[in-house]
Amino acid sequence: MILITGFGPFPGAPFNPTGPLALRLARRRRPTLAETRRVSHVFRTSYAAIAREFPALIARHRPAVILMFGLATRTRHLRIETRARNAVSLLFADADRRKPTARTLAVNGPTAMAARAPYARLLQAARAAGAPTMLSRDAGRYLCNVLFWRALEAAIQRGGPRVVAFVHVPRLRPGLTIADLTRAGEAILLAVLAAARRPH
Predict the structure, then answer these.
(1) Cα(74)–Cα(94) distance, rounded to whole angstroms?
(2) Strand-by-strand arrangement of the 2-7 sheet
(3) In the 8-state DSSP scheme, what is residue 82?
(4) pLDDT > 70? residue 200
(5) CATH number of domain containing 145
(6) Measured between alpha carbons, how far is 134 from 85 in angstroms, rounded to an integer?
């Protein structure tokens, strides 16, 4: 079971390609994916939506893999995030025009949590698909980092997902289409699936 997520628009980004990307990846038909069940979910870009919907998704589907995509408006390449930070910015409003009231996600929690994913393999897969891609140690302090943190919290619970990966994508532009992102996203999807299938 693979949960694939994206986000909707947010202030400064009236179009977010990660929503259509998540939907496309859930519908891809390849022999390698034949024995998987894939569920896509597009979050409204709000703190309340994540708090309400993410725990319900985990409880309902009990995914072995969570593959998340978010939009990084200032980057020109894909960023495979390697850690989530226990930090939230109080400066930026979400799509509901609300701002968080606390600077941390977990009181007395660690300053950061490492992703449960084979970074090097994901990087290689995305680059092989033709997408400029880098590893990143900073998922920001906005909704992407919040979702990433919550997914990593789920992964350390008994029966939690075996592989958790978060990928930031850039805005679409000439030379970078939704088809390009789908090709790279599928390569990453196959890499996380291979990691989840390996004996632990």
Answers:
(1) 17
(2) 38-43, 2-7, 65-71, 163-169, 78-81, 133-136
(3) -
(4) no
(5) 3.40.630.20
(6) 18
DSSP, res 31: G
Q: Contact 77/131 with Cβ under 8 angstroms?
A: yes
Mean residue pLDDT of the chain comes to 94
Q: Are strands 65-71 and 2-7 parallel, antiparallel or unpaired?
A: parallel
Q: What separation in angstroms does the CA of 98 have from each of 5, 47, 88?
A: 22, 8, 13
pTM of the model: 0.95
Q: How many domains does one find in the chain?
A: 1
pLDDT at 31: 85
| Structure tokens that stand for 135 in this block | 């590893």
Residue 133 Cα distances to 40, 125, 167, angstroms: 23, 10, 10
Structural domain range at position 53: 2-197
Count the helices and strands in the chain (H runs, E runs): 5, 8
